[in-house]
Design a protein that fits this description.
The protein is an all-alpha fold. About 70% of the residues lie in helices and about 0% in strands. The two termini are about 25 Å apart.
C-alpha cells in the first residue's frame, strides 16, 4: 500500500529535484501561509488597541500596522492596559515577523540545499 504524501512535505534527500511547477505551488502555499499569519497578527493588534485604548478602527489599524512593520506606535498611549498591550504586542510582532520570514524562505532554502546535495553526489 502506497502512502499518500502531504503537499507540505518536501522531497527526500535521495529524490530528484521537484519540478518547477511543484516548487512554484509550494512557494505560493507558503506565501499564503505568510499572508494568513500577518493578517491574523494585524487583527490581534487592531482589536487589542481598540479594546485597551479605545482607539478608532483607523487609529488602531495604523498603530498595529506600524508595530508589525517594525516602525513603532504612532499615537500616544493613555492607559496602563494599553501600554502593557503595546509592549506585549511589540514582542509578539517581532517573533511573528521572524517566523513568517522563515515560512516564506523555507521552500527556497530547501530547494537550494537539495540541489547542492544532489550536485555533491553524497549518498546516505
Amino acid at each position: 500500500m502506497r502512502r499518500s504524501r502531504s503537499p507540505w512535505i518536501y522531497e527526500h534527500r535521495g529524490a530528484p529535484l521537484a519540478p518547477r511547477g511543484v516548487f512554484l505551488r509550494r512557494v505560493a502555499k507558503h506565501f499564503l501561509m505568510f499572508l494568513v499569519g500577518v493578517i491574523a497578527a494585524l487583527l490581534i493588534g487592531v482589536f487589542g488597541y481598540r479594546i485597551t485604548e479605545g482607539m478608532s478602527w483607523i487609529d488602531a489599524y495604523l498603530n498595529a500596522a506600524m508595530i508589525l512593520g517594525g516602525m513603532g506606535p504612532v499615537g500616544e498611549l493613555h492607559t496602563s492596559a494599553g501600554k502593557i498591550f503595546a509592549g506585549t504586542y511589540a514582542i509578539f510582532a517581532g517573533v511573528i515577523f521572524l517566523v513568517m520570514v522563515g515560512v516564506v524562505l523555507a521552500p527556497v532554502a530547501h530547494r537550494v540545499l537539495h540541489r547542492l546535495h544532489l550536485e555533491s553526489g553524497e549518498e546516505g
